[in-house]
Amino acid sequence: MNLIVGAGTTLFLIFVQFWAPNNTKLNFTIHGLWPEYFNNSYPEYCNKSAIFNISQIQYLIPILDVEWVSYNGSNIDFWKHEYLKHATCFPNVSEEQFFLDTLHLFDNTDSTNTFQSNNIKTNQTYQKNYLNQLFNGTFQCSENNNQSILTLWQCYDLNLNQFSCPIWIDGSCSENITFQS
């Protein structure tokens, strides 16, 4: 993966996946890959002159339409948003490389397989710590009950070595959480 950030920075990466119970092929889909500082802040829209050019990733659209799905608008608008807000903060990374690298990370984490191979069931309650360990990440839950999983967050250093996310990322979930169908 080529997400190289300038020397001396204190960045790490957050890879975020949506829980996607209505998706017919996957239990999880990509939300995004975001740079984050170790002081609980993050850069965004780092290159105001950047332009999203869908033709650079045209050949990826069949994959993106399955693995990187918008649940609130068009997929292309969602990819554009993720690229302009987050990917522009990775110097020397092309639009194509950002999407390729994020897809590669998604394929390597294989959260859908973790879900299925561990016999996790929807609408059953699990201890948050158990799921955090199983998925090697932390979950964010809906604000209305703090039990319904919305997203999975996983943290990586700039060499794509996964590590436990900082405490402030340990989401909005209660101790007992559910994958709602």
From TrEMBL:
Signal peptide: none annotated. InterPro entries: RNase_T2-like, RNase_T2-like_sf, RNase_T2_His_AS_1, RNase_T2_His_AS_2. Belongs to the RNase T2 family. This is Uncharacterized protein. PANTHER family: RIBONUCLEASE T2 (PTHR11240). GO terms for biological process: RNA catabolic process. One of its GO terms (molecular function) is ribonuclease T2 activity. GO terms for cellular component: extracellular region.
